[in-house]
Design a protein that fits this description.
flat; mainly alpha
Length: 80
């Protein structure tokens, strides 16, 4: 069975591999183990605070997109 190359051409697959390899220690699935270890060194409270700061950033970016008129939210019509 041939490896799944995500529907990419050989050249695109080579570029994809070059872009996604070599960032920290990776397992066979490409998961960066160094990031996992760094997060596990944090206390649960520190992890929650890190997640909270990330959420605040996402909310700020989302709000900026809405203010700039880049959000599709105002154009969407929900049909529930």
């Amino acid at each position: 069975m041939e490896d799944d190359k995500l529907g990419l051409t050989q050249e695109q697959w080579k570029r994809f591999q070059a872009y996604t390899q070599g960032y920290g220690e990776q397992d066979e699935n490409g998961v960066d183990l160094s990031l996992l270890r760094a997060n596990l060194k944090l206390t649960p409270t520190e992890r929650i605070e890190k997640m909270r700061r990330s959420l605040v950033l996402v909310q700020e970016v989302r709000h900026a997109g809405i203010v700039a008129g880049l959000s599709g939210r105002s154009q969407r019509t929900d049909t529930k």
